[in-house]
Specification:
By secondary structure, the protein is mainly alpha-helical. The protein has 3 domains: about 110 residues; about 140 residues, no CATH class; about 80 residues, Alpha Horseshoe (Serine Threonine Protein Phosphatase 5, Tetratricopeptide repeat), CATH 1.25.40.10. About 70% of the residues lie in helices and about 0% in strands. Strands 1-2 form a two-stranded parallel ribbon. The longest helix is centred in the first third of the chain and has 27 residues. Belongs to the sigma-70 factor family. ECF subfamily. InterPro entries: DUF6596, RNA_pol_sigma-70_dom, RNA_pol_sigma70_r2, RNA_pol_sigma70_r4_t2, RNA_pol_sigma_r2, RNA_pol_sigma_r3/r4-like, WH-like_DNA-bd_sf.
Length: about 425
């Protein structure tokens, strides 16, 4: 097989299988840093051997087996071989062949539990948000440091440091690679959902750079969401988050013009929305609703569904959306929720009603540098015929945003309002 083709095959297999391999190894060695090292050793071996010997029939099992043997070899060299093997219930020196078969079974069984353990570990609240993001994409997404850096538009060494610090913190704090007890599950699960949604949002509405959206991050977040929904099928907020992401992602084909410039929601060609993603999202929302009281993510999905179900912007059920935002503000109060509620209220009851809500947020320090606050205010002022004040608000939004496409959009709105 040509080397280039083999390397592409290795990369594809790694993207699919790396999380499973690392998860199984992490349970074996109880250290995510070591587990990733052994998995990376297997990746290097594949890059060396597959071009010469061909791709094995079961490439995922080959990676797992190779990584396992690298781990065993290192345990031998460290004179901790017996102790480590006892941790997984084996005596390799006495019965090598039997023990290897048992160890294969140990690594292959309970893959779902292993992945859950890895997810809970990578998203452990002892880590800062940026560390959780980077470590999750590295361990569970199979992304390289370079790919993560490119996705978030930060220097590659910075991402490398975040990943290294996260691994070191987990080791120093002796965070066990295990599922949390039931009493901690809500808090720990909330941390995981936050990480996945942060990844999605950075793709859906890029905070920096030249591009309005980065679909690859959205796709990775949805993939993680689907994995989590399969592992925790009875958690309503898991399905709520998946529904929210899939419904929002359905709009991606219509969110930009051919030149990459943004197209706002009410101006989008809804025939370009991805109907398959909408159906998937509505199904996930139905699953969340069937499991009990809706949490913040499911409520946001229900709001997104109001747009998805409307064939035209005029057909949107704005009163229902405003009511859902009011409910969301009680369940998960935040100034950003209030800002979004103001938009829905303005569409249901008129721009003056929305502006009244927005003006109560002007003194909120947490929104001081948030570009969407003056942008929403500018839009409402424009609808009320106050062109000069609206233009000033859009110019303020342009000063605050770090996204080039968004800045151009705000400045064009301001320029149009200043024309006689």
């Amino acid at each position: 097989m040509p080397t280039a083709d083999a390397h592409r095959a290795v990369e594809a297999v790694w993207r699919i299988e790396s999380a499973r391999v690392i998860a199984g190894l992490a349970r074996m060695v109880n250290d995510v840093g070591l587990a990733e090292e052994f998995a990376q050793d297997a990746l290097v071996a594949a890059l060396e051997e597959w071009p010469q010997k061909g791709i094995p029939d079961n490439p995922g099992a080959w990676l797992m087996r190779t990584a396992k043997h690298r781990a065993i070899d290192q345990f031998r060299r460290r004179d901790t071989y017996d102790r480590k093997l006892q941790q997984v219930g084996h005596d390799m020196e006495i019965r090598q062949e039997s023990a290897e078969a048992e160890l294969d079974d140990a690594l292959d069984d309970h893959i779902g539990d292993d992945l859950l353990r890895l997810i809970f570990t990578a998203c452990h609240p002892v880590l800062p948000a940026e560390g959780r993001l980077a470590l999750t994409l590295r361990l569970l997404g199979g992304l390289t440091t370079e790919e993560i850096a490119r996705a978030f538009l930060v220097p590659e060494p910075t991402v490398g440091q975040r990943i290294s610090r996260a691994k070191r913190t987990l080791a120093d704090k002796q965070v066990p690679i295990e599922l949390p007890p039931p009493s901690e599950l809500p808090t720990r699960l909330a941390s995981i959902l936050e990480v996945i949604y942060l990844i999605f949002n950075e793709g859906y509405a890029a905070s920096t750079g030249e591009d309005w959206i980065r679909p690859s991050l959205c796709e990775e977040a949805m993939r993680l969401g689907r994995v989590l929904a399969g592992l925790l099928p009875n958690e309503p907020e898991v399905h709520g988050l998946l529904a929210l992401m899939e419904i929002q992602a359905s709009r991606i084909p219509a969110r930009t013009a051919p030149d990459g410039s943004p197209i706002l929601l009410l101006d989008q060609d809804r025939s370009r929305w991805d109907r398959l993603l909408i159906r998937r999202g509505l199904t996930a929302l139905g699953r969340a609703e069937s499991l009990g009281t809706l949490g913040p993510y499911a409520l946001q999905a229900a709001i997104a569904a109001c747009h998805a179900r409307a064939l035209t912007a005029d057909a949107t059920d704005w009163p229902r959306m405003a009511a859902l935002y009011r409910l969301l503000s009680h369940v998960s109060p935040s100034p950003i929720v209030e800002l979004n509620r103001a938009v829905a209220v303005s569409m249901a009851d008129g721009p003056a009603a929305g502006l009244e809500i927005v003006d109560t947020l002007l003194s909120d320090r947490s929104l001081r540098d948030y570009p969407q606050l003056p942008a929403v205010r500018g839009d409402l002022l424009a609808r009320l015929g106050q062109a000069t004040e609206a233009a000033e608000a859009f110019e303020r939004a342009a000063d605050l945003t770090r996204n080039a496409r968004e800045r151009t959009l705000f400045l064009s709105r301001a320029a149009a309002l200043r024309q006689p």
